[in-house]
Amino acid sequence: MTVFTLLEIVSALSFIAMTAYLTARSRFIMRCARYPFHRASQFSLIVLFAFLAITGNYSTLPWDESRVTTRLIGVILAGISGGPVSGFGVGFICASYLVMIEYSSIVLPLFIIAAGSLSGMLRLRFTFHQITPLTGARVALVIELCQISLITLFSDSTATLFLNFKSAVLTMGVSITGVWLFLYIINWIEAEQDIYGARAAQLSLDIASRTLPFLRLGFNTHSATITANIIYELTQVDAVSITGRYKRLAFIGQGADHHKPSEPILSAAVKETITSKTMKVVNTPSDRGCPFPFCPLKSSVVVPLFSSDRVIGTIEIARVHENTVSELDIHIADGIANLLSVQIQLAEVDKQRKMREKAELKALRAQINPHFLFNTINIIMSFCRTDPDKARSLLGSLATLMQRGYSNQDELVTLQNELAAIMAYLEIAMSRFGDRLDIAVNIDDETSTALIPALSLQPLVENALNHGLFPKLGSCLLSIEAYIDENTLIITITDNGVGIAPEKLAKIQAGHSDGVGLTNVHQRLTSLYGTKYGLTITSKPPFGTEIRLRIPFQQSVCIQKESGVL
To answer: Is 378 exposed, middle or buried (0-12, 13-18, 19+ CB in 10 A)?
Structure first.
């Protein structure tokens, strides 16, 4: 073997290595290799490997007077990558080329078709990633041994047999090396991309965990600035930019002198990303499209941020040199954008949930039972003649309730304030019950300053009076207790009324009750504090009902300041 022959072998294998590198870098071709059993994928693989097989006819290696080609490499790789259909297709194209161009005998073309089909049978049993370079080399070895057997069978003379056998041995070595090299480069690049993906995923998760508390407050200039600083710190890129749909929200790094927050978007690449809703990788200043003539940033990757299917902004990771955006930068930018989009959507959902809860709370405050108001006015009118002091007291209690219903109070109030409104309500209720109703209130001193959601107790008291005690004949008792157990505030409202039927209690606990009072209170509590808190209802008809409210113990801020806690 001469030096010239070695150079030819290196040249042929270099062409195969270059093809493998370009194939591994093409997301489209790799997607076709992973999912080859579609017409579009098979057609793409046939075109690629048919080109490799046909050019292999011209990668001739001088070996005495015979020609050694690399066409079988493309045929074998077509079957390994795309299955029997792709292997047969490339083999048929290569065989047709031999018949029409080189006027070859029919034996070699038929063998090439069979080689492509047989190598494709392996793809039916394994995925593309399961076929290792060593497995591909073994397939090439078997096919080349079959070719040597055909050469031995159809040789005319001993001299021709010897010459063809020497060429076939060299072809076998080149084919095995070529197939192994192609699959090795594919696996190497994919392993490298997996490493990039893992690093990018870890980095994206770190960024997401640090930015979550700020983005949950909304996607605005403040949260974007904090997010951009965190990304700039962790990724160590030259610049990080976050924009809204029409203006820049934050910019950190080189170029900050002209890429300023709250100003319109300058970069053409960012505008194009918002319009196209797709990632854009730019490697030159002209592609980036910054109108500032001395902008230090030359290349970048821009990824859109979504809320549902609507683009609400972009995130850009930029470099100061051309063609320096790496695979890791692309993975990081894409991962960060996906996680930030999820966080922004969660912030929107959280905002809508809070708005809905505020609307429900306002509706609950404004809800004054017309029958209750009518009965209260009638009772006050009756006391105006017989007991003016009592009428005056009832009017004060009614004024307290109406003021509370129509005023815009805080979402959290102290237990003491909530009980004041409840006692005003109970004073009016006792005028309806007469001497039948007794009220017992037992509140620990430290619980009086505890913060509870507004209107979380009054619906429970109303439910106990209207559905538990009012239908009862005889003496009625309503008990309200509050105490702290392991940093948990527990409030119980107990009545000795008629109780709740098991069927109705099951509907209430499942959230299918017709009334909104108990369900509303329970849902608000679980939304604020978690599912381990809320209401627990126990009823034993006809002996009464107990409703237990559990929330974390939290004191009023004013009380904490006075005691020196803050």
So the answer is: exposed
Positive or negative, the CA dihedral 85, 87, 88, 94 is positive
Query: In the chain, how many H helices and how many E strands?
Result: 19, 14
CA distance 489 to 447: 8
Backbone angles phi, psi at 289, to 5 degrees: 75, 35
Lookup: tokens for 137: 């080399």
Distance CA 496, CA 193 (A): 70
The string of DSSP letters for 398-433 reads HHHHHHHHHS---SEEEHHHHHHHHHHHHHHHHHHH
Rounded distance between C-alpha atoms, residue 242 and residue 245, angstroms: 10
Q: Which residues pair with 111 in a beta bridge?
A: none
CA distance 525 to 522: 5
For 427-451, the pLDDT digits (tens) are 887 877 777 888 999 998 889 899 9
pTM over 0.85: no
CA 68 – CA 414 distance, rounded (Å): 92
Q: Give dist(CA 117, CA 110) in Å, integer.
A: 11
